[in-house]
Specification:
It contains 7 helices and 5 strands. A 5-stranded parallel beta sheet has the order 2-3-1-4-5, sandwiched between helices. It is an alpha/beta fold and 289 residues long.
């Protein structure tokens, strides 16, 4: 018995579709017409008995799970994180805590305010690293400089683009702070917030993070700020005139009710300790702002 080599496979059993062979007949006979086969006139000689149909095995695709109901916990292995909401006021340390304990193990959100050269980024990072509980540090300037192409540097002229990027960076920092706090990680953000811009300054931070945000002002003397600014490089180094102007505007925080730390004579470790003690007092008696 001859077999045609290279003919296509027959259709699946019971598909109802008739396939015509694409290979030529070995004796040059024409292809059979496409369509239903003629009615059989009786079994041909030597026709084997029909075999029972065996279903074609399907590829194994793993265990079949019942559909996951809507709103059920994701089972793909991703960790479910609580969404970040407005940060409430932190609970102060217990009365049994010693006075030098500072903020202890409290989860809190902090806004460290200060002019360029005040050391707020260095102090904020040191304070975050020295705490006994998970604490994140977010620098507004770092987030603002995430914009690479199209970065709007205010030193080249304050305009709508630079203001929009500042606002976008502050809102991004607020999102991050709320997410950290929602997952039991404290957060400290540093920014040069001016007292005469309540809507886009302190008021904006209150909207971005929540009423539990604790602001503290870091304000050393002008001579110290000028000396520290001179050691900077790149677009973070300002002219002496600009530093003096910013420092003068920051003096408006005196009399605002916010806690102020003059770190002119303190190193980073001492300033971070004073910041922690100031925050502990602010938790016990939150400032009005």
């Amino acid at each position: 018995m001859q077999h045609v080599v290279g003919a296509p496979l027959p259709p699946p059993h019971g598909s109802g579709q008739v396939w015509a062979s694409a290979a030529p007949h070995p004796h040059g006979a024409p292809h059979p017409p496409v369509g239903p086969p003629p009615a059989p006139q009786g079994p041909p000689p030597h026709t084997p008995a029909p075999q029972p149909h065996i279903p074609t095995p399907q590829p194994h695709s793993g265990p079949q799970h019942a559909p996951v109901p809507s709103g059920a916990r994701d089972t793909t292995g991703h960790i479910q994180l609580p969404p970040g909401g407005p940060v409430p006021l932190p609970q102060p340390p217990g009365a049994a805590a010693p006075a030098h304990a500072g903020t202890g193990n409290t989860t809190l959100a902090v806004l460290l305010i200060g002019p360029a050269g005040a050391g707020k980024t260095t102090v904020a990072k040191y304070w975050a690293q020295s705490r006994r509980v998970p604490t994140a540090h977010i620098s507004l300037d770092d987030v603002r400089e995430w914009v690479c192409s199209g970065f709007a540097d205010p030193q080249s002229g304050w305009n709508d683009h630079s203001e929009a990027q500042y606002r976008l960076a502050r809102r991004t920092c607020g999102f991050a702070a709320r997410n950290f706090l929602a997952n039991n990680i404290s957060c400290i953000v540093d920014d040069a917030v001016f007292p005469d811009w309540p809507v886009v300054g302190l008021g904006g931070w209150k909207r971005h993070v929540g009423p539990g945000l604790l602001p503290v002002v870091l304000l050393p003397g002008l001579e110290v700020v000028l000396e520290r600014n001179a050691k900077r490089s790149g677009n973070r180094r300002l002219s002496d005139e600009e530093v003096a102007r910013i420092h003068g505007r920051m003096a408006g925080w005196y009399g605002s009710g916010l806690p102020i730390i003059d770190n002119s004579q303190f190193d980073v470790a001492t300033t971070a300790r004073l910041l922690d003690e100031t925050l502990a007092r602010a938790m016990a008696s939150p400032p009005t702002w």
